[in-house]
Amino acid sequence: MNIEAIVFYLFSAITIIAAIGVITVKNSVQAVLCLVLTFFSASALWLLLEAEFLAITLVLVYVGAVMVLFLFVVMMLDVDFAALKQGFAKQLPLGLLVGFALFGAVYWVIRSQVFGTDKIPEPAKHEQGYSNVEELGRLLYGEYFYPFEIAGVILLVAIIAAISLTFRGRRERKGQSVREQHRVTKEERLKIVSMDSEEQYADMEITDTKQDEETTL
Amino acid sequence: MSTLLASLTAPTISHDFWPLLPELFLLTAASILLIVDVFSTDIDRKLSYNLAQLILISTGVIVLFQFPTSQDFLYHRHFINDPLSATIKVSVIVLASISLMFARPYILQRKILRGEYYLLHLFAVLGMMVLVSGASLLSLYLGLELMSLCLYALVAMRRREKLSAEAAVKYFVMGAIASGFILYGISFVYGVTGKIHLADIAAYLTENEASLTLRFALVFLVTGLAFKFGAVPFQMWVPDVYHGAPTSTTVFLASAPKVAAFGLAIRILVFGFAGILADWQSLLMILAVLSMLVGNLVALAQTNIKRLLAYSAIAHMGYFLLGLIAGNSEGYSASFFYILTYAITSLGGFGCLIYLAKGQQEINQIDDLKGLGMRNPWAGLLISFLFLSMAGLPPFVGFWAKLEVIKAVLNSGHIWLAIIAAAMSIIGLFYYLKVVKVIFFDKPEIENPIRAERSLRLGLGITGIAVAVLGLFPAQLMDLCQKVFQYI
Description:
Number of strands of chain B: 2
CATH superfamily of the largest domain in chain A: NADH-ubiquinone/plastoquinone oxidoreductase chain 6, subunit NuoJ
Number of helices of chain A: 12
Largest interface: A-B, 35 and 46 residues
Strand content of chain A: under 5%
Number of domains of chain B: 1
Order of helices and strands of chain A: HHHHHHHHHHHH
Radius of gyration of chain A: 33 Å
Oligomer: heterodimer
Strand content of chain B: under 5%
Radius of gyration of chain B: 22 Å
Order of helices and strands of chain B: HHHEEHHHHHHHHHHHHHHHHHH
Shape of chain A: extended
Largest sheet of chain B: 2 strands, antiparallel
CATH topology of the largest domain in chain A: Four Helix Bundle (Hemerythrin (Met), subunit A)
């Protein structure tokens, strides 16, 4: 067993254990930290594949930025995860059944007899001086420029959608909104309550009501 | 460094952007509209609306102006320019434009009036255009995501309503699962073949025997597609989303994306996986039969008209899949005809709910349509045209669409499928005719006539008359649908 295989198995094991940890640990902060560990060991696996740039990006972007933000969100929001997990035991048998069935199916189609190294050629090793970044740049801005641009548009739409769904106007301003006033309907301003006529008063001021009736008639 | 520069300026990088002009124009114009909308002081957003319509129409004119007469793979074969993609683009633009007509008065009267509402329509149309001219799994997936992202936001636009928020979350989660399925399938395809272009995958399948792994990947792709179509057993989200979303969004959701999803299905199944036709045929058969059964039978029990239309949409997806199952260009063109006419009909069907909604009120129950024929005979007539067309009665266009798909499936030798389809459409007749009966033969609860905005009358008029005219003269549209499949 060469050193490469040892490193691969070590980091694969860490990835799998950490990934299981993400969905099993009770504390949500620990779950996020498990996810960080998963990304970290996955980036080590990418290094083995000679995808150095992607490995570094994974650490910098996901571990460094995205997951830290996520950690902030999880720590600041007081989500009652115990309540979310209610009914877990009830759904467990079905979940296990579906999970194992899917695992079995996926294993069956990618077992070594079907999808082994004899069927699929091993990726060629690159010679020394091969630049990952240059190759990626060439692909992204050359051959894949069209999908790359669309990915940019998707990010733009994500910004527009997120802002339009969360922006509620400036809150410190105390002015009138003419638009809201124009759009107001009768139902919003006037509340019609149906109630019985109050007999007690009617008895006491019987003369008054009679007079009223006469005038209305 | 100098070699790098030389390679960057090499002629392989330079491109003719002429075929990409509609997409480029739409993207640029939508970005300009984004800025215009920010600085606009118009509280009614009339300028944004007019500009959005203008942009859509101009894009449609550009597509028509450079209508392709051949099939070209461009931009490193990520983009396909053929009559099919151009036809779908034009129809999607027209459908989006009419659904904006329906949406405008609706969102004016409710608290969802924002310029982004129109913008997201434009970007969704852009996503559909990218989707239908995707020639690699990558560009197809990105187009699908661009479209779906806009639709999620449009469903969530009415964030104060509980029902709407619930619908948005359901739609988002289901859509994300569907995208995940498609992506998982794509990763398997790439793992086995090492190819990402549809033409390469098709070539691989003619040279090699499809392995078990590749067939497995196909199951994931078809499942993802079924999620997007809302075919049984992946239909759970359809009634809730159609019901919970603002009606103006439902109008859009039920029309244009269906046509785009047809483009996606054709690209993946026919352009990429024609080599294992028998495999996806049997998968689609299960989906089609279940959709027709569940859609029609559950629709019988509905009293809510939005849910009725949603279940009828599920049933229609079943009929539409019949054409794909036929597995030849006759079947594909029948399916295309079906989905185009269905999109027009459902646009009008949901649009009429906006037409009838008064002020802040919503039309939800079938009983709300009572006596419409007396209150407004024209609207009653047009709306019953739409429902009769959905039922598949001659002389409306729905009849020809059903006839074509059933003919296609008969010619390909699946007689039992044709029998099920015919039987189910007879069951379907019941609930469509029930609506027509309510419109014309029930006494109205409110007598006063309906006063609707001009754009609503125009939208309802276009869809209602289109259904009748296309039903009387279906030959031209059918010819077009057959012509676009000449390259298969």
